[in-house]
Design goal:
With about 170 residues, the chain is mainly α. About 85% of the residues lie in helices and about 0% in strands. The longest helix is centred in the first third of the chain and has 39 residues.
Length: about 170
């Protein structure tokens, strides 16, 4: 092979390499643009606020007027009690974290604050359970099964969003 032929072969090889790199770059750019367009045309579903979720649940349960009144009482009681729990536990949690931020935190105080917050949360859960059982008693067996299924779906959705994978 002559020097001229070897030089042309090397130049042709470089041209092929540049063409291949250009083709790969073009394909990647097209994929990026297609992905951007697709995500604009197919946005993720908006997360519903709790009030809208309860409205949808009521519609899915197909409640009669008496059941609807019981459902509205249930939702109202859950909202009030949840807000009350937050007002009771937020100061305890803040105090616990403030104590932990100190150079020499008092571990017993932190544990007591977390325990007290946990007790208040458990009390709220017990009340919510009683309120849920009262609502379920007003529903037909089919509605009860739908209610439980919806609540399971909500919980699964919440776990996925929060990254909590435990059952």
């Amino acid at each position: 092979m002559s020097v001229a032929t070897a030089g042309r072969t090397r130049v042709a090889g470089r041209q092929r390499l540049w063409m291949a790199l250009l083709a790969v770059s073009l394909v990647l750019n097209l994929c990026f643009i297609a992905g951007a367009v697709w995500s604009r045309l197919n946005p993720p579903p908006a997360r519903l606020d709790l009030a809208e979720r309860y409205r949808q649940m009521a519609a899915q349960l197909d409640l009669d007027p008496q059941q609807r009144a019981a459902f509205d009482r249930y939702v109202g009681a859950i909202r009030v009690r949840t807000e009350q729990m937050r007002q009771e536990t937020d100061p305890l949690m803040s105090a616990a974290w403030e104590e932990l931020a100190k150079p020499q935190p008092d571990a017993a105080k932190v544990e007591r604050l977390f325990d007290e917050a946990g007790e208040r949360r458990r009390a709220t859960q017990h009340e919510a359970t009683s309120q849920t059982v009262a609502l379920l008693n007003a529903l037909s067996p089919e509605q009860r099964a739908r209610f439980v299924g919806i609540m399971r779906d909500w919980r699964a959705s919440w776990r996925q969003r929060s990254g909590n994978r435990t059952p």
